[in-house]
Automatic annotation (TrEMBL):
<keyword id="KW-0472">Membrane</keyword>
<feature type="domain" description="ATP synthase F1 complex delta/epsilon subunit N-terminal">
    <location>
        <begin position="3"/>
        <end position="82"/>
    </location>
</feature>
<keyword id="KW-0139">CF(1)</keyword>
<comment type="similarity">
    <text>Belongs to the ATPase epsilon chain family.</text>
</comment>
<comment type="subunit">
    <text>F-type ATPases have 2 components, CF(1) - the catalytic core - and CF(0) - the membrane proton channel. CF(1) has five subunits: alpha(3), beta(3), gamma(1), delta(1), epsilon(1). CF(0) has three main subunits: a, b and c.</text>
</comment>
<dbReference type="Pfam" id="PF02823">
    <property type="entry name" value="ATP-synt_DE_N"/>
</dbReference>
<dbReference type="InterPro" id="IPR020546">
    <property type="entry name" value="ATP_synth_F1_dsu/esu_N"/>
</dbReference>
<keyword id="KW-1003">Cell membrane</keyword>
<comment type="function">
    <text>Produces ATP from ADP in the presence of a proton gradient across the membrane.</text>
</comment>
<keyword id="KW-0813">Transport</keyword>
<keyword id="KW-0066">ATP synthesis</keyword>
<keyword id="KW-0406">Ion transport</keyword>
<dbReference type="InterPro" id="IPR001469">
    <property type="entry name" value="ATP_synth_F1_dsu/esu"/>
</dbReference>
<dbReference type="InterPro" id="IPR036771">
    <property type="entry name" value="ATPsynth_dsu/esu_N"/>
</dbReference>
<keyword id="KW-0375">Hydrogen ion transport</keyword>
<protein>
    <recommendedName>
        <fullName>ATP synthase epsilon chain</fullName>
    </recommendedName>
</protein>
Length: 87
């Protein structure tokens, strides 16, 4: 079982693919998301979104402003500004 993850900025797609795990900083604190996570909508608190891909690769995206949505093993990070950064 894997997550289908999409990270987008207001003007472009940043990353999309399958992942084992996503960790994101929200206004409620850091949130870990695994397959089977309950549906949630959260405000991204400007910071890192860490992704472990289905192949075990570790990616980090910087996301400023926006929200994170989880439903049916789909994770969407929609940010005002977002980019992949070196971890």
């Amino acid at each position: 079982m894997a997550l289908n993850v999409t990270v987008v900025a207001a003007d472009r797609g940043v990353w999309s693919g399958e992942a084992r795990r996503v960790i994101a900083r929200t206004t409620e604190g850091e949130m870990g998301i695994l397959p089977g996570h309950e549906p949630v909508l959260a405000i991204v608190a400007g910071g890192e979104v860490r992704i472990v891909t289905a192949d075990g690769e570790h990616l980090t995206a910087r996301a400023d402003g926006g929200f994170l949505s989880v439903e049916n093993d789909r994770v969407m990070v929609v940010a005002d500004q977002a980019e992949l950064v070196d971890a």
